[in-house]
Amino acid sequence: MYLISLSLRCAEWQRGERAVRARLALLFAFAALTFVLPAAAQEKAPAASNVSTVAAEKRAISQSAQFVGRVEAVERVDIRARVTGFLEEVLFKDGETVKKGAPLYRIEQAPFQAAVQQAEANVQRAQATVDNAVVQRQRAEQLLLTNATSVAARDDKVAAQKTAEGDLAAATAALETAKISLAYTDIASPIDGQIGRTAVTRGNVVGPDSGVLTTIVSSDPMYVVFPVSQREFLRLAERHGQKENRENFKVFITFSNGRRYAQAGTIDFVDVKVDRGTDTIPVRASFANSGGELVDGQLVQVDVETSAAEEHVLIPQNALIADQEGVYVFIVEEGKVAQRRLKVGQPSGASIVVTEGLSGGEPVIVGGLQSLRPGTPVTAVPIEKPVGG
Questions:
Q1: Can you give the residue ranges of the Multidrug resistance protein MdtA-like barrel-sandwich hybrid domain (predicted)?
Q2: b/e string for 302-323 if b means 16 or more Cβ within 10 A?
Q3: Which of 154, 215, 362, 388 is the most exposed place for a label (fewest CB within 10 A)?
């Protein structure tokens, strides 16, 4: 009896334990649902984040093309010695501005002055010979009238006079040459401009074989010469016509540090032939340079713009994203991120021209682009300027 009673008690205890376990399992399941359901609801409806946007701008801009050019002086003169002698004086300071006719070098003059004096003496001697020959001819003609001399003798006097006159002409020419050589001992500036560094100092022997003594370049105005590819030249010709007035093109230059030159230039020359080696056509523009900012030989970026403006869509350059398929931007569309594939044209300052993909007015996202995905809920926050632009 005792064993039967104990067995019944054990069975009741086991049934009670199973009931407790069932209640605990139900309680844990309810608690888990309590935590999981809010989390799932949160994943389905994430909060929209703020993104900086700039509206795609539609405005009229001039068509432009970019090239690489080099600044050239309108006038450039290499100064050389034209006679040989000792250099007595250097009459300028390196780098200064000189005027036309300003003295630059002086070569020792004494030998050339002596040559002039000798040539003058030769002229006097030749003149005396001519005068005597004239008298002898006149006397022979008078004697011939009285048959006191022969015709042959008279002809000899005439020939002697002509010979003396020839010697006089040669002596006179030698005198002029000596005077020119003497004048070459003073070397003056042939143009207005800035002078470079002297290659020789006083005491050296200089002459035609000495090479360039110094260089003078004019400074205002200045040329900028840039090569235009045959393809680009034909494109401009098709768009604006072969006889397009050059005044309709404005030329701007940008220095290597990114600063743009304040004054615009005008195209004044297009070469008449194509460079066969590079398939380019040299084009030249003229720029005022009263401030002396443009330096001969300087490398610059050249922007050629047409005066006829056309309407285009522009967006900040820092909004562009590139991948293997090309470039695209993110815009805000109905509160979500949307992707737009683009075709772009020439840059315009901090912006770039969009030729296909945007019509203007779209809020283009310019900040936090790396973390965005199409379809992500966002709130557009318009800004006036591109981030970093």
A1: 76-206
A2: bbbbbeeeeebbbbbbbbbbee
A3: 388
Task: Give the number of other Cβ atoms within 10 Å of residue 290's Cβ.
Answer: 9
pLDDT digits (tens, 9 = 90+) for 70-108: 999 898 999 999 999 999 999 999 988 899 999 999 999
CA distance linking residue 217 with residue 209, whole number of Å = 22
- pTM here is 0.58
User: Which pair of tokens denotes residue 380?
Assistant: 């557009």
Architecture, CATH, for domain 65-74+217-308: Beta Barrel (2.40)
Token pair belonging to 159? 């020939």
Spell out a b/e string for 23-48, using b for 16 or more CB atoms within 10 Å of the CB, else e: eeeeeeeeeeeeeeeeeeeeeeeeee
Closest CA to 108 of 81, 134, 126: 81
Alpha carbon 68 to its chain's center: 5
Please give the CATH number for the structural domain made up of 84-216: 2.40.50.100
